Amino acid sequence: CDEWTQVGLGFDGTAFVNAPDLDDGSYDNCAPVHFKARRMDANACQTDTVFHDQVKFCCSDINDTINVILRVYDVNPGTGVVAIGAFEGHYNDCMVQVLVEDKIKPICTAPANVTVTCELFDPSLWAYGTAVGTDNCCVDTITGTVNYSQFDSLCNRGTITRNWTVKDCAANTANCSQKVIVQYNQEYYVKFPNDRVISVCDGTGAYGA
Fold first, then answer.
1. For residues 80, 51, 68 and 45, what is the CA-based torsion angle, rounded to 10 degrees?
2. What pLDDT, in 10s, does the model give residues 192-208?
3. pTM of the predicted model, to two decimals?
């Protein structure tokens, strides 16, 4: 047997390993050899009560080391499952330890960028949505931060950047962001009267408004 091997889960959260791929040079003195395999312990992925052409791994195996029995036959057991006690005297077993990993990053999807006027701006940012995380197996956490460095909070104008990080159950991460652009529309102006120089301050002057 390959005593130790690693398996990466696919985009559907599963991985299949062909029984011959667990072999490391098995042979027989008289006949060609054939291979089946099964997990030592069953779970939601696959039963352990029969031998299979392929061993299936899934999300519940992430970061676990799964013990797999490789069975080598000197007769052809055919395709499909084979009972544990079938072909007595025509097989031998060895053990493989399989580390199951998830190397696929989650997907972080931020809400669309938003442009609003200062009158309609929601300071809580609740109205502008939040990020959604998806993964081939499971999402562990979604955390967010807000950057106000390009935003004038006195006049409620500028750009707010919202950042999110999605972490899956295998500790892979992905990031995404949204920009909230707040526009300040000044619909008025102020005109001051002209400067004046006076020589007598008697309170009677009209200096404009």
1. 70
2. 999 988 887 777 777 88
3. 0.77
Using DSSP, state whether 141 is helix, strand or coil: strand
Question: Letter for the amino acid at 132?
Answer: V
Question: Which neighbouring-strand residues pair with 31?
Answer: none
**Residue 44, exposed/middle/buried by CB under 10 A (0-12, 13-18, 19+)?**
exposed
User: How far is the CA of 134 from the CAs of 100, 113, 128, 187, in angstroms?
Assistant: 20, 20, 20, 44
Q: Are 148 and 81 in contact (CB under 8 A)?
A: no
CA distance 203 to 177: 61
3-state percent helix, strand, coil for the chain, nearest multiple of 5:
5, 45, 50
Q: Are 133 and 155 contacting, i.e. CB atoms less than 8 angstroms apart?
A: no
pLDDT digits (tens, 9 = 90+) for 98-122: 999 999 999 999 999 999 999 899 9
For residues 56 and 21, the answer to whether their CB atoms sit within 8 Å is: no
* 50 contacts 83 by C-beta, under 8 angstroms: yes
Cα 166 vs. chain centroid, distance in angstroms?
A: 6
Locate the DSSP E strands across the chain: 4-8, 14-18, 34-39, 50-51, 54-58, 65-73, 82-83, 91-101, 107-109, 114-117, 132-134, 139-152, 157-168, 173-183
| Interior/surface letters 72-98, b for 16+ CB within 10 angstroms, e for the rest | bbbeebeeeebeeebbeeebeebebeb
